[in-house]
Amino acid sequence: MKKVINGVDDVVRDALNGIAAAHPNLAVDFENKVITRAGGPTAGKVGLISGGGSGHEPLHGGFVGLGMLDAACAGEIFTSPVPDQMLAATKAVDAGAGVLHIVKNYTGDVLNFQMAAELAADDGVEVATVVINDDVAVQDSLYTAGRRGTGATVFVEKIAGALAEQLVPLKSVVDVATEVNERSRSFGIALSACTTPASGKPGFDLPDDEVELGVGIHGEPGRRRAPLGTSSELVNVAVSAINDDLPLAGHDLLVMLNGLGGTPLVELYVAYDDVATQIAALGGRIKRQLVGNYITSLDMAGFTVTVCRLTDDLTSLWDAPVNTPALRWGV
Amino acid sequence: MKKVINGVDDVVRDALNGIAAAHPNLAVDFENKVITRAGGPTAGKVGLISGGGSGHEPLHGGFVGLGMLDAACAGEIFTSPVPDQMLAATKAVDAGAGVLHIVKNYTGDVLNFQMAAELAADDGVEVATVVINDDVAVQDSLYTAGRRGTGATVFVEKIAGALAEQLVPLKSVVDVATEVNERSRSFGIALSACTTPASGKPGFDLPDDEVELGVGIHGEPGRRRAPLGTSSELVNVAVSAINDDLPLAGHDLLVMLNGLGGTPLVELYVAYDDVATQIAALGGRIKRQLVGNYITSLDMAGFTVTVCRLTDDLTSLWDAPVNTPALRWGV
């Protein structure tokens, strides 16, 4: 195992130190491993929190800032944060208008966020939860009952975050987050496994000439193994799976071609060319797009495709100003 | 070899298609493999061009846009663009105020840009050239006479690009680009080799427990091999090499911790924590910083550190608005 680390048990702490040093707009509560906006919560604004295992950077800490999250809880690598972290984050961002928990659908995350919400309610904080479950690859998975949550998380955090800046009630933020999740679908393909610092070896074996179709962002098995194939063939599997579940024809779309960490950007652009061509051929109209590493799986090679059916309102919220380490425009 | 491509010879063309589809603010001349700003040149503004082999994305196409480059020439993977591409780019961005060629110091790039400059001069376009040579690792290298050009290229493109937006004369843009290059130093460390599509196998052999200290961005040999070591130990080699060449004590600094493509962002933050700590211990004052993948070497694992001694004027130009795929603020 070759990693740029100081010790297997120090990765998350050291990375949080690096995040604090790199991003003056963020503040880090090191005891609770919570990243918040510097300057604290905005009076009267619904607070938005997410979190999950580390190793998926920039998710979630890279999405904290104006127009997106108020706080992110960092678990250990590929391990849910604990309820105490989530409770600390909830209290840190509560400004009297309630707090939304944006939770990717993994069993540990769901249970821990639920416990944190109950503890927060005991302390008088109104909490609502939206569970993200956009991954069409499998119905149940290694760490999940129901569909896994993946790329739609970025869309929900951005769009719900933009609406929250307008100081609307908690229910409105919940509604738009729910709407974005329901209108979004994802599918991922791995060319290689990733290696966690703790295990020191690849999380699964993948022959040199095969890919995992429908892989999860921790390397969970997908639908099946297949020969490597061209970019066009791989993208076709992903786009077809999404289109079978949520037809794209005639819709305005937001599309993300996301790298899993180990795939060079030049290859992501090759894949995005195929995504754009194939979605157009299906009759979808791409109006907004992201290409890059937004939800990674450490050093895994491969990509995920996420598509959201837009409305005019959702497009406006997507275009609204955002100032985070990983997404920034309009400011 | 596992890559998301359609064919070894199609990578650059397909990636340019993907870039054009992903970034509506950019335009692509596919015949010449030149990326420009959509909307053409700004009257009276010095045009800024860079370019080089592909495989280093987002460099250079990801730095085309308001406040940075006017055009980027994309060579084949790790191969200099040819003079005809550079000439086409030069003519495309010429708005009567002259054109600056920003050239990383690799022999092929230098010779080809020189020929393009002569051809452009024959056509009546005033061209100036600044060669970037910030890498302190080795005096000469596999593809270079003199020091290699690496991370300072991003600083030069940003700062000279900001000044050019003020419609100053070509000489002023040349002077600031030269100043930034002279005030900047870099050092890189590889944990693994990268694999080009054409070769299909890693460019060099690196034992499981060793790193290449002072590696070039195409995998060129550095100063020496060494045991892997901790993040703190690796960063110390890089920061010490820079500080030995350009003492940092008492200076305001711009710092980039750059990933070479295959290292997860969480590890880059771990390394940046060590960079910030060690530079502070040396008496340097970090005023601005970038952490992420800005000049990559395909899927190489490892990082580079680049430091620039700031002045108040350079800081203001760094902070000026920029709107490119890879750097965006103030707009």
At CATH level 2, the architecture of the largest domain in chain A is 3-Layer(aba) Sandwich
The share of residues in extended strands of chain A comes to 15-25%
What is the number of helical segments of chain A per DSSP (H or I, 4+ residues)?
8
Number of DSSP strands of chain A? 14
Oligomerization state: homodimer
CATH fold topology of the largest domain in chain A: Rossmann fold
Low-confidence segments of chain A, given as residue ranges, are none
Largest beta sheet of chain A: what is the strand line-up?
A: 1-2-4-3-5-6
Query: What gap, in angstroms, lies between the N and C termini of chain A?
Result: 40 Å
Structural class of chain A: alpha/beta
Shape of chain A: globular
What series of H and E elements makes up the topology of chain A?
HEEEEHEHEHHEEEHEHEEHEE
The most extensive contact between chains is: A-B, 62 and 62 residues
What can you see in these coordinates?
2 copies of one chain form a homodimer. The longest helix of chain A is centred in the C-terminal third of the chain and has 17 residues, at 265-281. The model of chain A has no long low-confidence stretch (mean pLDDT 97). Chain A contains 8 helices and 14 strands. In chain A, helix 2 crosses helix 3, helix 4 (152-164) runs antiparallel to helix 5 (170-182) and helix 6 crosses helix 7. Chain A is of the alpha/beta class. Chain A is globular, with a radius of gyration of 19 Å. Chain A has helices spanning 11-22, 83-93, 107-122, 152-164, 170-182, 231-245, 265-281, 312-319, and strands at residues 26-29, 34-37, 47-54, 71-77, 99-104, 127-132, 184-190, 210-213, 224-227, 252-259, 285-292, 302-309, 322-323, 328-329. The first copy, chain A, has 2 domains: 8-183, Rossmann fold, CATH 3.40.50.10440; 184-317, Dihydroxyacetone kinase, domain 2 (Hypothetical Protein Tm841, Chain: A,domain 3, 2-Layer Sandwich). The first copy, chain A, has a 6-stranded mixed sheet, sandwiched between helices. In chain A, helix 3 links the parallel strand 5 and strand 6. The interface between A and B is large, with 62 and 62 residues.
